[in-house]
Design a protein that fits this description.
eight-stranded parallel beta sheet, alpha/beta, binds zinc ion
Length: about 350
């Protein structure tokens, strides 16, 4: 059994978006599902403190922070067609980033324990300059910067399995040699970036690893991508911490994408990442919530991943994709492996 800390805060509900797929009901569904589940004894939860301005400004330009704060102070408003704010969005965004920071701090202070920040707004599309794609501040990036600057870590791996490319996180760390960034995403799809040719810059060249996957990929394809690319690349990097941008919109029931992953597939990814953390970095695994827009699939997948990471046996209430899945992605994996110098399995 493993200890597993959940970071939850009611302020995350105060970011109101109206009729929008990224709404407070997502977190309400997760919290209700967690309360109704029989979770392993090692699962506990706490409220995180908000991120400080200093922590946010290590990732974002002051103009971005001022934009979000001023829009909220005026009662809210749209940043783009997808990304909106309400009166308390600035406070919610600070708490969401604070949740990711608290998850990282917890696993650094407690070897062998895991932590999952169940926060919103999500973060991985927010670039240093631009809130976008439902994201205001980049929670995962802010937490990783805190790990580098406050805890002195030298090698942090970020794995982003949200179905959309983590363009914001990629932009933050493209030239940062202390960070390895891997993103598995549907391609072509929003936001349009994440080609396998995008590999990082300067001293960090090769440390951005994009896995642009065709629509229809399910559990078997993601498992193959983990075995052939994610696991060897993370092993090669030897991280001191693994941070996960955990979006659940690759689920077959999700309305905003076209993948075919089941809850069982997310559990397999979480277990693989926990195995890497155990093998490489004293079990230090911190997750932060990104997307996931079918409430039932999102809530049951979060419960299943939480249960699995705490050493329990999760259930998959929705089952496998009813329309099947694309199993063979060998040509894509072959190209990614070649691009990143990975030796093929015999
Ligand atoms: Zn997404």
């Amino acid at each position: 059994m493993n200890e597993m800390l959940l970071l939850l805060h009611p302020e995350c509900l105060a970011h109101e978006t109206g009729r929008h797929p990224e709404n407070p009901g997502r977190l309400v569904a997760i919290w209700e599902a967690l309360q109704n589940a029989s979770l392993p004894a090692g699962v506990s939860w706490t409220e995180p403190a908000p991120a400080t301005l200093e922590q946010v400004l290590r990732v974002h330009r002051p103009e971005l922070v001022n934009l979000v704060r001023e829009l909220a102070a005026r009662g809210g408003g749209a940043i783009d067609a997808d990304t909106v704010t309400s009166a308390r969005s600035y406070d919610a965004a600070l708490v969401a980033a604070g949740g990711a920071i608290a998850a990282v701090r917890h696993v650094l202070a407690n070897p062998g324990q895991r932590a999952f920040a169940l926060v919103r707004p999500p973060g991985h599309h927010a670039t240093p300059e631009q809130p976008m794609g439902f994201c205001l501040f980049n929670n995962a990036a802010i937490a990783v910067r805190a790990a580098l600057d406050e805890h002195g870590l030298k090698r942090v791996a970020i794995v982003d399995f949200d179905v959309h490319h983590g363009n914001g996180t990629q932009a933050v760390f493209a030239a940062e040699p202390r960070v390895l960034f891997l993103s598995l995403h549907q391609f072509p799809w929003y936001p349009g970036t994440g080609r396998l040719e995008e590999v990082g810059e300067g001293a960090a060249r090769g440390q951005t690893v994009n896995l642009p996957l065709p629509a229809g990929c399910g559990d078997a394809a993601y498992q193959a991508a983990f075995e052939r690319v994610v696991e060897p690349v993370v092993r090669r990097f030897q991280p001191e911490l693994i941070v996960v941008s955990a979006g659940f919109d690759a689920h077959w029931a999700d309305p905003l994408a076209e993948m075919a992953v089941s809850t069982t597939g997310f559990v397999a990814m979480a277990r693989a990442l926990a195995g890497l953390a155990d093998e490489l970095c004293q079990g230090r695994l911190a997750l932060t919530l990104e997307g996931g827009y079918d409430r039932s699939a999102l809530a049951s997948s979060v419960v299943a991943v939480t249960t699995a990471l705490a050493g329990g046996e999760p259930t998959d209430v929705l089952g496998p994709s009813p329309t099947g899945e694309l199993a063979n992605i060998e040509p894509v994996l072959e190209r990614i492996c070649r691009r990143h110098g990975l030796i093929r399995e015999a």
